[in-house]
Specification:
heterodimer; A: alpha/beta; 5-stranded parallel β-sheet; elongated; B: 7-stranded mixed β-sheet; two-stranded antiparallel ribbon; 9 strands; rod-shaped; disordered N terminus
């Protein structure tokens, strides 16, 4: 369980203050006030999302920076702007799909805009914002909505997923998260090292500590013990053969 | 004696026309002397094309067409007046009007021009002869003969012949005989077969009168011989008839019958010729009429053509003038339009700048207050709720103004996408929370969370914001506002139902137009211009949706906003 990394590209300290005030609990924030700072921070900080003011230093540096992001390591981008006129948006539109937020910023709009930016990035609008216990998979990480906050879970850090009706529990080293998603649909989007060894569990095989030969029960690295159903034992054996 | 008288009557009746004919020959010859074409005509007996008016008059006169002749004379402008007058008087004579002619001839006879003098005397002589006043006729003939110039043989022979005729009628046979022989001699000198034949016939008559039938027969025979090669059926008929009479008298019945037959034959031919001539005449009249008709048609066609041409030309001119005017007008209109567009653009730009420049500081102020509220920081400015309320309403007004001016100058950015509806409603609820609480309004939303609608999110926010703002404004304290939704076909309709003061039917009809007379007062007594609603309509249309405002049956108003929708996966 980690905080999401956020890069704020904004030279107006008041705006920065408001943004950090609203988002500091939820995000690891790095701030850049110029293009050079921005690129540097982007390369070292590896943000999960960026909030860019279109106008920085009186130029459309936000657009330029967005282009840099898109060309190197694309992440969701949220533009901040003052007005909805074509002149400021024509250039931004090239960074499609993009999200924007009109000033003044209020907490609800901002948080919603960020969620929407994540959703748009993977073309799954509504997956986070329309549900209470929602999750969204971005490459090798899961965004999990807990209350009003977003939590990041690196997919490889997941130990196993446990089915609970239409919901799932995601178990990590030291926490579990309830998400509104079926185990089956989860299993489809996860990488190959996640295996269905029981109708109630999908296990990250990288996290298996040991297999008990008597009943084929698994002991994971966090000492959790999971059963393996009869028909999945063969698959487990094959896996270990390969591993050996 | 009865027989003789009968002979005489026949003879005289037959001879008379030939005398008249002889008289005219000289007159014609005299007039012809004054015109080359006329002389040519006398020679060829054919009308000449494009002849002068005089020549045409002459021709018509010679062919006994006196009316036509008269017309030609009137048209003639070249010939001298005396000549024209003379011809005119002769025409009058031919038509039997003597008095005027007589006076004129007498007047002219006083002239120095001997030629005309002689002609006038000659004409007078003939005039009196026609009136059977032989004494007077003789006096003028004598005067004519005394004019000291050369005379044509026609002149002399005609006078002599007339005289001879007079002697004959007075039974002065020797004088008549001598004169006829003089005339015969003159004609023989000019080898004029026709006149010779006629004179022999005259002599025949003369001797017939004297009961010298044998001599008369000889003369008639001579006349017959001379007449034979001629084509004058009238003369031939007369001569043969006379021969028939003589043969009858000498009991030579066979010859008599032959002569009679021949005479009849000539008569027939004469009639035929006359008929032919008449037919030809009629044909010519017809042809002339036809040509005239053709000419009339052509003239009419030409006139029509000219009329049409003039009409078309006029139309073109009028069209051209109108076209020029139209172009000038168009130019003016275009210029005015351009100016108007420029002015409008300037106005829109001004609006945009004002709204834009005002918006930023107001937004900052708003944000600042928010921040202070969030931080529970009371150190700075007052936390009086009224200040933030004023700032909020100012902000909405500025947003409306900015969006309106942007859309007017086509600068408003429209980015349509799917977005979750309830999130937007929740944001609006959050923005108006303090106001709702302050008024003690029962507020609830009944929107399915999974609904995604399609449109520009920020524009949709403006719409909802305005509608909610209105609902709160016009709902009294302790009232109720419900935001609900339902699916209709492909559209999702959001209902914003309030228990407010409602809108009258009259105002509802024009609710989306800017009009000063439908200003409504809200629950606090403040006036509302309706700018928000007007903007709402155009904004929802930009979003591809519709908006309707209906009265709430339970009191208040229901706003229906419809947009395309789908459910989130």
């Amino acid at each position: 369980m980690e905080k999401l990394n956020l890069l704020i590209f904004e030279d107006d300290s008041e705006e920065v203050e408001i943004l950090t005030h609203i988002l500091a609990d939820e995000y690891n924030i790095s701030i850049a006030t110029s293009y050079e700072e921005g690129t540097k921070a982007f390369n070292t900080h590896l943000p999960d999302i960026a909030i860019l003011d279109i106008f920085v230093d009186g130029e459309r540096e936000g657009i330029r920076f967005a282009a840099h992001i898109q060309n190197t390591h694309p992440i969701p981008i949220l533009f901040l702007t003052n007005s909805k006129d074509k002149l400021s948006f024509t250039a931004a539109k090239k960074q499609h799909p993009y999200s924007y937020l009109l000033k003044p910023i209020d907490p609800h709009s901002l948080k919603f805009a960020l969620e929407l930016a994540f959703e748009k990035h993977v073309n799954q609008v509504g997956h986070l914002s329309t549900k209470e216990e929602a999750t969204l998979q971005l490459d090798n990480k899961l965004l999990i909505k807990k209350g009003n906050a977003l939590i990041k879970v690196v997919v490889d850090d997941i130990f196993y997923i446990e089915s609970e009706d239409k919901y799932c529990y995601i178990h990590t080293q030291d926490a579990r998260f309830l998400v509104q998603k079926s185990l089956k649909s989860f299993a489809e989007t996860l990488p190959n090292n996640f295996m269905s060894l029981h109708r109630k569990y999908v296990v990250n095989t990288n996290q298996i500590q040991s297999v008990l030969p008597s009943d084929y029960s698994l002991t994971l690295k966090n000492n959790a013990v999971l059963p393996v159903s009869q028909r999945h034992r063969k698959v487990l054996l094959e896996l270990f053969t390969i591993i050996k | 004696m009865s027989k003789l008288s009968k002979h005489f009557i026949i003879a005289v009746l037959l001879i008379l026309p030939t005398v008249v004919f002889g008289q005219n020959t000289y007159t014609l010859e005299w007039f012809a002397n004054y015109c080359e074409d006329c002389e040519a005509y006398v020679d060829s007996q054919k009308r000449i094309k494009d002849a002068s008016a005089w020549c045409n008059a002459y021709f018509s006169f010679a062919n006994d067409n006196f009316k036509e002749a008269k017309r030609y004379i009137l048209n003639d402008t070249k010939t001298n007046d005396t000549l024209k007058q003379l011809l005119q008087q002769h025409i009058l004579l031919q038509l039997g009007v003597n008095t005027k002619a007589k006076a004129y001839f007498l007047e002219v006879s006083a002239t120095e021009n001997l030629n005309i003098k002689q002609f006038a005397y000659k004409s007078l002589g003939k005039l009196y002869f026609d009136k059977q006043q032989n004494d007077s006729a003789l006096i003028y003939y004598e005067k004519a003969l005394q004019v000291p110039i050369d005379q044509s043989h026609y002149f002399k022979s005609e006078i002599f012949e007339t005289k001879a005729f007079m002697y004959l009628s007075e039974e002065k046979y020797p004088q008549a005989d001598s004169l006829y022989k003089k005339v015969l001699y003159l004609y023989k000198q000019h080898q004029d077969s026709f006149q010779i034949a006629r004179n022999y016939s005259n002599l025949g008559n003369l001797y017939f009168e004297q009961y010298k039938d044998e001599l008369a027969g000889n003369y008639f025979d001579s006349a017959y011989n001379y007449a034979k090669p001629l084509k004058d059926f009238e003369l031939k008929s007369t001569i043969t008839y006379n021969l028939h009479v003589l043969a009858e008298l000498s009991k030579d019945h066979k010859s008599a019958i032959n002569y009679l037959k021949e005479s009849h034959a000539y008569n027939d031919s004469l009639q035929k010729q006359n008929t032919l001539w008449q037919v030809a005449q009629e044909k010519e009249v017809f042809n002339v009429a036809q040509k005239q008709a053709e000419l009339d048609i052509k003239t009419a066609e030409r006139n029509t053509f000219i009329a049409i041409s003039i009409g078309v030309l006029l139309l073109l001119v009028v069209g051209f003038v109108l076209y020029r005017k139209l172009i000038a007008q168009n130019k003016k209109i275009k210029k005015l339009n351009r100016e108007l567009n420029e002015t409008n653009a300037v106005k829109n730009q001004l609006f945009t700048i004002i709204a834009h420049d005002l918006r930023s500081p107001v937004a900052r102020l708003q944000q600042l207050f928010q921040l202070k509220t969030i931080k529970k920081d009371t150190t700075a400015i007052t936390t009086d709720k009224n200040v933030s309320k004023i700032i909020d309403s100012l902000s909405l007004l500025l947003d409306n103004l900015l969006n309106w001016s942007l859309s007017q100058s086509d600068l408003l950015m429209v980015q349509k996408e799917w977005f979750p509806l309830w999130q937007i409603i929740r944001q609006m609820e959050f923005q108006y929370q303090s106001l709702i609480e302050e008024k003690g309004i029962q507020f609830s939303t009944e929107i399915d969370k999974s609904v995604l609608v399609y449109g520009d999110m920020e524009i949709f926010k403006i719409v909802i914001r305005n509608c909610l703002d209105n609902a709160i404004k016009f709902t009294p304290k302790g009232g109720k506002i419900v935001i609900s939704g339902s699916i209709e076909d492909e559209l999702f309709t959001v209902f914003i139902t309030d228990s407010g003061i409602g809108i009258s039917e009259k105002v509802l009809k024009s609710i989306f137009e800017i009009q000063s007379d439908k200003i409504q007062k809200d629950t606090t007594g403040r006036k509302s211009s309706g700018l928000g609603l007007m903007l709402t309509k155009s904004m929802i249309q930009l979003n591809g949706g519709t908006i309707q405002i209906k009265p709430n049956p339970e009191g208040g108003t229901i706003v229906n906003i419809s947009l395309p929708y789908k459910n989130a996966a």
